[in-house]
Amino acid sequence: MRLGRQTIRHDQPITIAETFSLAGSYEAKGNFKDYFDLVMKDDEWGCKTFEATEIKMQKTAIEGCLQKCNLTPDAVDCILGGDLINQIVPTAFSARDFDIPFMGLYNACSTFGEAMNLGAMLMQEQFERILCITSSHYATAERQYRFPMELGTQPTPASQWTVTGTGCALLTKESVAGKPRITHSTIGKVKDLGITDANNMGAAMAPAACDTIVTHLKESGRDPAYYDLIITGDMGRLGRDIVHYLCKEEGGYDLDNLNDCGSMIYDVKQKPGQGGSGAGCVSLSFCSYLYKRMIQGELKKILLVPTGALLSKDTPLQGESIPAIAHALAIETEV
Amino acid sequence: MRLGRQTIRHDQPITIAETFSLAGSYEAKGNFKDYFDLVMKDDEWGCKTFEATEIKMQKTAIEGCLQKCNLTPDAVDCILGGDLINQIVPTAFSARDFDIPFMGLYNACSTFGEAMNLGAMLMQEQFERILCITSSHYATAERQYRFPMELGTQPTPASQWTVTGTGCALLTKESVAGKPRITHSTIGKVKDLGITDANNMGAAMAPAACDTIVTHLKESGRDPAYYDLIITGDMGRLGRDIVHYLCKEEGGYDLDNLNDCGSMIYDVKQKPGQGGSGAGCVSLSFCSYLYKRMIQGELKKILLVPTGALLSKDTPLQGESIPAIAHALAIETEV
């Protein structure tokens, strides 16, 4: 049932039956280290190119998720996913190895939110099982968006660290006791307030995150305190603080329970700049730390808000500012 | 209702209420010249970069489509779309100028099929009006995927000509007499038979096109002759012939009524190689020639099969073969 222009309350809450999380070795030194299903021993993982590594990461996560559920690929109706690499190569090239229908998505680092929301909407009627997956890799993202790593370029104060990791979630229609369910989806709009610094993604994405959170709360009629945690995708610490400020100024909400996967995933001693970023930041964090804490009953109701900056490496050089988007989904164990 | 693993018959056929087509000047010399809503006088169209031109193209097509329907942006529930440019910049940057929720898609040149199928599925329940759009531009695609145009590189015999154009379609729930409706959707799988020549997209995409067409016919229980036309997105002449051969050899279907937007859009005297290609090829062709012929009653039932090659400029250089995908949708005026 549509509660507003952007928010849907799912007539049938959709179960997140299982997840699989695969992290890089740097991520395995961070705060979520005890929650990962698998850790790569190095950034290459036996592949000749970093792009091939990212393809292998997605493939391994899908296989891992299917294995945990005792399912074969023919039991899955569709893969919905994406990543940051040009033409979403890691996702498309991983999908070719499964005999599963595929729809590729791109909304930058918010793609996991787009996938989970689309999956939950599609499953109201026709589908039984959908896999949602996104990934990122520090080395593929660095060389595509910034500088060759060999150059040893100094990061700027507002910059973030692209997460090497992937998270894959299996959505099912049947409810399973104790498993988190997607109850609401809020589809974001593109927002651009004129930020042009491609090394300050937090500032570029904050207006979109604020707009989606405030819209979700208003359209769902929920108080922020309804949620144990409102958690954005990859704002970083600076971006999270801007979101907190904007939600208060623009929406009148003082969010005590706001946090951010990118701000939480690393130990500050690792010096990841403002924190983690990338399309794998929110999917890895959700499919490991957040999902497992929900299963253990430590978190019962969360609002997950994957955030994305929609630039390419060329658009800042062409004088464009940075549009951004955020999608929100309410995930609850007690419905 | 699901008829098979990949094919859905829509309980509520979804009306294609209106379309808007915007073509480049080269396309306006081709076979569909009498069907375009708007033609650009040159490839720049007053913009400093070709990417900015493609953004303006999408924006103009959305505005044009809304204007034809007498709608304001707030009447639209969602934009579903994509293009070929890295991080789907033309689509995302156009979407920032509309106050409409947005979900970005990427399945290369088959994205228009993905958008229309997703739109039709999402509208079964919650949505009233969805805009589907894809675009391509000869100059943005050439410099991203191949060589700088200034180099004057000779095209190879199997190569195609990227269409400069965009097509935007408005989907609605209410049926309107005489307007085409989407009745069936078939979601494609990624197929890769090992083609490595990035200048022979037709060969790379043919197995995916064949797989989707044969699957659609089998799962829908329809005979090919049910359709006035089975039309792929941008196979080109060589690719179309391979699809015809494969459907006969692999599926047992001798498709007399098979054709291809890329093979039809240009006059052979224009020397477009094997024909048109690009994410705008099928959306421009459908939103002009095919849609208007359906409105005029000259075509009553078509199977539209947008086709896409999922490579990036880097993957052939990294030794990868070319995965491809095709999505099919049945569009009918008499349901």
SSE order of chain A, as H and E?
EEHEHEHEHEEEHEHEHEHEEEE
Mean pLDDT of chain A: 97
User: Major beta sheet of chain A, specifics?
Assistant: 11 strands, mixed
Helical fraction of chain A: 25-40%
Rg of chain A, Å, rounded = 18 Å
Low-confidence stretches of chain A: none
Q: Which assembly state applies to the chains in this document?
A: homodimer
What labels describe this entry?
homodimer; 335 residues; alpha/beta; eleven-stranded mixed sheet; two-stranded parallel ribbon; 8 helices; 31% helix; 23% strand
Description:
2 copies of one chain form a homodimer. By secondary structure, chain A is of the alpha/beta class. Chain A contains 8 helices and 15 strands. Chain A has helices spanning 50-68, 89-95, 111-122, 138-145, 201-220, 236-251, 261-264, 279-295; strands at 7-23, 38-39, 78-83, 102-104, 129-136, 161-162, 165-172, 181-186, 229-232, 258-260, 276-277, 301-305, 307-309, 324-326, 328-332. In chain A, the strands form 3 sheets. In chain A, strands 1, 2, 3, 4, 5, 7, 8, 9, 10, 12 and 15 form an 11-stranded mixed β-sheet that branches. In chain A, strands 6-11 form a two-stranded parallel sheet. In chain A, helix 1 packs across helix 2 and helix 5 (201-220) packs across helix 6. The two termini of chain A are 16 Å apart. The mean pLDDT of chain A is 97. The interface between A and B is large, with 57 and 57 residues.
